[in-house]
Automatic annotation (TrEMBL):
Matching InterPro entries: Aromatic_deC, PyrdxlP-dep_de-COase, PyrdxlP-dep_Trfase, PyrdxlP-dep_Trfase_major, PyrdxlP-dep_Trfase_small
TM segment ranges: none
PANTHER family: GROUP II PYRIDOXAL-5-PHOSPHATE DECARBOXYLASE, MIP05841P
Record SUPFAM superfamilies: PLP-dependent transferases (SSF53383)
Cofactor(s) demanded: pyridoxal 5'-phosphate
Pfam families registered for this protein in UniProt: Pyridoxal_deC
Protein name as it appears in the record: Pyridoxal-dependent decarboxylase
Alphabetical UniProt keywords: Decarboxylase, Lyase, Pyridoxal phosphate
Superkingdom of origin: Bacteria
Family of this protein: Belongs to the group II decarboxylase family.
Amino acid sequence: MSSPVIEELDAARRFADRWLASLPTRPVGVPADPAALRAALGDLPDDGLPAAGVLDDLAAALEPGLVASGGPRYFGFVTGGTLPVALAADWMVTAADQDAAVAVMSPAAAVVEEVAGRWALDLLGLPTDAAVGFATGAQTANIACLAAARHALLAAAGHDVEADGLAGAPPVTVLVGAAGHATVLQALRLLGFGARHAVRVPADAQGAMLPDALAAALDAAPGPVLVCAQAGQVNTGACDPLDAIADVVRARENAWLHVDGAFGLWAAASPTRRHLVAGADRADSWAVDAHKWLNVPYDSALAVVRDRAALATAMSVSAPYLPLGEQDPSTRTLENSRRARGVPVYAALRTLGRQGVADLVDRCCDLAARAAERFAGHAEVVNDVVLNQVLVRFPGVDVAGLARAVAEDGTCWVGTTVWDGVPALRFSVSNWSTTTADVDLSVDRILALSGRGAAGPGSRGTAR
Ligand SMILES: *Cc1c(COP(=O)(O)O)cnc(C)c1O
């Protein structure tokens, strides 16, 4: 016997089949006209319409505005696609429609998070008894982690920030790497520390924090300190030297070390890349995305905090109808009611296994290195390609115009940035399905569009 929603699910599946099958060949991110998209979506009817028809029409209306960001030749931002098993698990999440906030609302959602969280800690080499909150992204994970930091630092200084706020609190020195992520500054802003209050610690040419500079900044700072380090700079992939940073921070009383490892922390899952994040386990909190490199669907990230009580206190909600405890996932997240994010993470980890996660990380890094090699000689690869990011300059070429031409061409999609004052293309490999052929085809196309002549063997030596 089938459920009353089978017709609707069939419509969704028709769309999903068609869309996913088209990913390897469709133009990746051709510009769309928002006005046309709006018009195709129609008006609010007085009387409702049949559901399956609504879904088929919706699929047709959306299609021109969809970006193949889950496909193999999307190299923009640090995006990642969706492993088939994670996609299917996410459909199960929606079908079950569990509220993962409170264990009594879904014992299954709470326990699957506990299990998947433990596995993630194992893969990431983090303390096995740390608290794990399933957040919507590294952004909210950063906020949750830094809220725990704020609690612990001020509690140790005799101030109850949850009750009394920041007014009258002892000042906390906040130190952030010069190439730290914008969402860390946003978190500091939201937590009342103020983005401008953060002291930016000088970084090397790759954007990795300089531990000596950190030590000097710490020497100059009395009182509690919050240090925000990073694993995986969003342009270069550089990881702060976490072991050296931990040496400096751990020598200090009432200091908290946070690591924004949105994508870079996954290096820990690969025996060949693990050294890049050595020392990460010595921090106090970590933000790491699952929807980027682990390739689960949006939205999914982990907020990991060593001091379980600090996170629980910072996230606590109290009401007579809502007696919360350790068993309740909402004691570890900003979000209260939310979907069961642990399910697709569990499915991805169980299907990949330790080896599969390591292979995924290694494959993306190897492909990034291959892209860099292919760019070299025609364009200027700016970064040390240690992880999955390639940063490319095209002297004499309008980079924004080139990115537009690449988007319109449709073979692939790449982002832009400004690094060290110079515009550059960002080529980020984080999709499970990207192949060598995808990388070669894309790099050659970008080079051809840049006028730096692709890829006849003869053209190599002649490019500037
Ligand atoms: C992507 C990213 C973030 C923000 O993550 P979201 O998943 O978009 O919330 C934070 N820090 C770094 C280093 C990132 O790469």
